[in-house]
Write a structure and sequence with these properties.
The chain is an alpha/beta fold. It contains ten helices and 15 strands. β14 and β15 form a beta hairpin. The longest helix has 20 residues.
Length: 330
Amino acid sequence: MELELRHLRVLCAIADSGSVGRAASALGFTQPAMSTQLRRIERLLGEGLFVRGRTGVELTAYGAEVVSQARDILARADALGRRPVGRPASSAGTLRLGVTNTPVVPALLDSLRGTLPDLSVSVCSVYATSDLLGLLETGELDAALGIAYPGMPVTYPSALAHRAINTVPIFVALHAGHPLAHRLEIPLEELSDDTWFVASDDGVGWPGVFYDACRAAGFVPAVTHEFHVLDQLQSMIAKGLGVALVQPTVRPVDGVLVKPLAGDPLWQRPLLIWHPDKVDAPVAEAVHHHAVRAYRDLLAQAPHLQKWLARSYTTARLPEGPVMAQPGPD
């Protein structure tokens, strides 16, 4: 057996989905055929590329190197006939990582420590994704975990690369005694009289997408508070002081319910942005892979999201984005 481009696409599909079964479905194979293909590739390369985890498969350190090389080969193959773009040399050893309001950081850092023990990671917390882009552009950061919104294009500096981590619906958090608490899904228009806690401007679309959704639902929020400190926010919601839109990974405290919005009018796209000339390709691959894994694990632990998935989709697709696959065993 000799490696072909189709084999490299198999490896990338498994790495992106975190599951042999989901990769098989995406590429039109059966799961046994995909598993056989993976075993043959690993035998040819002489070392395992993935290890089975609680919710699927994870890249080994060697696997991250191979998949990053596979992506490079596939990109070069796809670029045949176009004007070639040189790839600058990269460096490794340290990573200055900026992060917006994302819950994946603890699990991501723990996974990187195990996978890349020689990598030193310095984390900088910055709320606005636009500020993260500025710090990347000035060279103060090497990589960042930011946010985008489907339908709201972001202008990235040409020196930066970016890749989506997931695409998920935005949910609403409300008091357990709210008149709509019994609903499986909450129509946005029926929250028109509520007081809203709205996170501040993140420079890439929020809160504009929220107000656009409200106008499409036929109202403008009468009372809003600018707020995004999650623990205090949940305490105020638990006291019935207002409602807020939240990430589907949020774990509600006592007195708070997290519900999907009817019709899923709002979506969010976590993503990795990095300097290819400052971050080794295997490091970027490992950061993206483990961020995807951490996010998928958090989604698997969110019962409100699991109920939404069970009612709505096995997979939810957006026309311009990646698949938000149902978290679960391989």
